[in-house]
Amino acid sequence: MNKQEKTSLAFQRENYWIMIGGIVVLLLGLWIMTLDKEPFGFGFLGLTLGPVIVFVGFVIQIFAIFYKKK
């Protein structure tokens, strides 16, 4: 095994930055859900906007896993 094989990582630098961005979006969506003032979070923020943003965060994470620089 040569030196390059030992030091190669599973992802490139861009993948990790996209993953960090996805984590930030996930945390933003969870934070938005906590802002809902309706009982049990049954308002617009808790039932619609927050979950959509969390879903987008998961899509970003999946994209980061499959992203390959050309």
Overview of the molecule:
By secondary structure, the protein is an all-alpha fold. The chain has one domain (9-66). It has 3 helices and no strands. It starts with a helix and ends with a helix.
Number of helices: 3
Distance between the termini: 26 Å
Classify the beta-strand content into a percent band.
Answer: under 5%
Low-confidence stretches: none
User: What is the total tally of β strands?
Assistant: 0
Q: Roughly how much helix do the residues carry, as a percent range?
A: over 70%
What's the overall average pLDDT, rounded?
91
State the secondary-structure class.
mainly alpha
Number of domains: 1
Main sheet summary: none
Coarse morphology: elongated
H/E series: HHH
| Gyration radius over CA | 17 Å
Which tags fit this structure?
70 residues, mainly alpha, 3 helices, 71% helix, 0% strand, elongated
Task: Show the helix and strand layout.
Blueprint: H1 3-7, H2 13-34, H3 44-66
Helix pairs in contact: 2-3
Give a quick precis of the structure.
The protein is an all-alpha fold. It contains 3 helices and no strands.
